[in-house]
Design brief:
Elements lengths: L1 H23 L10 E8 L10 E4 L2 E12 L4 E9 L9 E6 L6 E6 L12 E2 L1 E3 L4 H16 L5
Parallel strand pairs: 1-7, 2-6, 5-8
Antiparallel strand pairs: 1-4, 2-3, 3-4, 5-6
């Protein structure tokens, strides 16, 4: 009888570890509900990865499904799978944001005021690329160096 209880405890522990692994790996919505695909082009996606969350007002509304390079526009084409229950206007803005200072990157959607809604296959035209920390630091250092140099006459 004791062996049975120990076995059940071990099985419950392994199941808890599997669930935790899925949560940490952003895979908790495997086989989730119905979605519709939309795309957005960004000049720079930073560290955005497939399976990254798509959030609107802090609520996860979908996941990034694919990231490809657009050879014609020289931009990154991001394919987004948005849950069917969430509708966004055609003039929605997509931004690549970071959770915290050095946290994971995600796509943030901010709805506009258009009467028509995005549907499967549509492209979000208004995008804002990721803020790259290295570029900000180098720009700051360049500006400080320019302030310290004597003015040319």
């Amino acid at each position: 009888m004791l062996d049975l209880w120990v076995g059940l405890f071990v099985v419950a522990g392994v199941a808890a570890l599997v669930i935790l692994a899925f949560k940490v790996g952003n895979m908790s919505s495997l086989g989730g509900g119905e979605t519709y695909q939309i795309t957005a082009n960004f000049d720079n996606i930073g560290g955005l990865k497939p399976r990254a969350p798509i959030k609107s007002a802090g609520v996860v509304v979908g996941r990034v499904t694919a990231i490809t390079f657009n050879n014609e526009r020289f931009t990154a084409k991001v394919t987004l799978a948005v849950d069917q229950g969430y509708k966004f206007p055609k003039d929605t803005t997509a931004s690549i944001l970071t959770s915290g200072l050095l946290g994971e990157q995600y796509v943030g959607l901010e709805g506009g005021g258009d009467d028509q809604m995005l549907k499967a296959g549509d492209n979000i035209r208004l995008t804002q690329s990721a803020v790259v920390l290295e570029k900000l630091i180098s720009q700051f250092l360049f500006d400080k160096a320019a302030e310290g140099s004597p003015a040319k006459k």
